[in-house]
Amino acid sequence: TSNVTGGTPTYLYQWFLNGSPVTGANSDSWVFSPPAPGVYSVYLNVTDDVAEEEMSNVAYVTVNPQLDVSITPTTVTMQTSESQLFTSTVSGGTPPYSYQWYLNESTVSAATASNWTFTPTSPGYYQIYVAVTDNVGGSDTSNTASVTVQGKPEADFTWYPYSPTVDEEVTFDASASTPNGGTIISYAWDFGDNQTGTGEILTHSYHSTGTYTITLNVTDSEGIWDTQSKSITVATTPPPPPPLAVGGEMVFVKTDKTVV
Q: Which residue of 44, 141, 173, 243 could cross-link 56, Cys pair, CB 3.0 to 4.6 Å?
């Protein structure tokens, strides 16, 4: 904007940029839209009605590169027990910069540094980005990072019969295990008698009486695992019931056991 005093109206205006006249810039004000970063000189030449000329002072305009911000990493799969550091990279603009991190479109309290550590409290899908403002009011918003938070899988199992006897086949079933957002891909068993097995459902027999600790380890597709241990008691195979005498006759009772 110019302020002209003296001379003889009316006035003719010509704006100059870096020493060259600007085409069409012939009024008392001019809006400069810089084509690229750099330092520019701007001045105005005024001619009055009797051809007297006067040049204004020279204004110097420093145009910084456009503010640009990005964050890394951009895609994350994690679990609730983990933390993830997000780092911003800023170029252009006029330092210093101010930062505000966002989680699912909401501002994160006190997350106003160039980096931010995300520690999820529950499984789910999250979007993270940062907004940056420079010292002259320029602003930019980063790319959005996508975060999938898986819950830790929970191992659990049952067996039948619950109180087996020696050499009796026992079915172990881990279908009660919960993936919590992931996919369980491995079931590893330790039966407590130096025998192991794999699979969601399988059978096993114990050849001695006693109490054994069964341990199940489940692992999901991201390598996250959990274990569960339970105790099983194996009893001696009960002897067959004795024959019963009724009226001098031997009466045998049918059982599901072999009588020797």
A: 44
CA-to-CA separations, 18 to 4, 24, 41, 195, 256, in angstroms, rounded: 22, 16, 5, 86, 107
User: Is residue 128 over pLDDT 70?
Assistant: yes
Reference 187, options 153, 211, 160; nearest CA is 153
Q: What percent of the chain has pLDDT over 90?
A: 77
Assign 3-state DSSP to the chain and report helix, strand, coil percentages, each to 5: 0, 50, 50
68-150 CATH choice from 2.60.40.10, 1.10.8.60, 1.10.10.200, 3.40.630.30? 2.60.40.10
What is the pTM assigned to this prediction? 0.59
CATH, domain 158-234, list 2.170.130.10, 2.60.120.10, 2.60.40.640, 2.60.40.10: 2.60.40.10
| DSSP assignment letter at 153 | P
Q: Which of 196, 191, 187, 224 is nearest to 210 (CA)?
A: 191
